[in-house]
């Protein structure tokens, strides 16, 4: 009985061993017939990626870009490898976070490109404002400045003495009180003057005054109010919609212009500048209060500071070593208490 039991157990073990052997043979065959696992490329090089979402028109900075690995096997044309070459440029289109940046996706200026917003706004630096100023041929360096140039702006102002309370130009009008023969007080208004001497109350005039022979002369001063402003446009800027309307046949077509007489030519009468907000406030105040502005063209690439003191008549005489003229018994006629702005023969031009 025991012998028979051992035979049955041995048979079972033999069958199990045969099944295990057959199963291993099948697995080995399947593994040998399977495709080899593809190996990822191990060689990489560094390219520039967007560290955050970069909307179109945004300037690229060290904060919104980063370096990351890119497989050498998939080297694509235009991949940016040096971040310093694109810092300060602007995105031509939206770049999502984590995307590699290509040289075709950035530009120094977006003017003329199909991006939302006006061309001028796309060409401006963050924190700057565009302001338009009137410009004549003399004040505008004979219309030499063009878009992209840099100018220094010289402002000239005229100052008067004012009465602090009245806020009116001095001298004030003076009322002279006197007594008439019948004892009445008579009031006479004098057009300006100052108290010269006083007399005791009597039938005579109570006081005498020095009266100015002419109106108060303004004191001019010139200063460089803006040392560096970039020119965004010269002349009236035409919007895209206006340009498209004019280009459309029969829609918004310009009327024929008569030929100017006397050699007059079309010339700009306005200049648009890129300045800081505080500079825009200064220019606006000078322009609205009647100050004179002159645009001095700067050399290409010149970024030196123009920190100069303002000039008045005293500094002009001292710095330029001008000798004071002697007092003569004669002088120039027709003195005008305003800045003299020369008008050149060719200044009468058709503006655009």
Radius of gyration: 42 Å
Number of domains: 3
Major sheet summary line: 6 strands, antiparallel
With helices defined by DSSP (H or I, 4 residues minimum), what is the helix count?
A: 5
Compute the separation of the termini in Å. 125 Å
- Helix amount, in percent? 10-25%
E-strand count = 16
Query: Which regions have little confidence, pLDDT < 50, spanning 5+ residues?
Result: 245-264
Order of helices and strands: HEEEEHEEEEEEEHEEHEEHE
Return the structural class: alpha+beta
What form results from the Cα inertia axes?
A: elongated
Beta content comes to 25-35%
Arithmetic mean pLDDT: 77
3D structure, described in words:
With 352 residues, the protein is α+β, with helices and mostly antiparallel strands. The protein is 18% helix and 25% strand. The longest helix is centred in the first third of the chain and has 32 residues, at 2-33. It starts with a helix and ends with a strand. The relative contact order is 0.13.
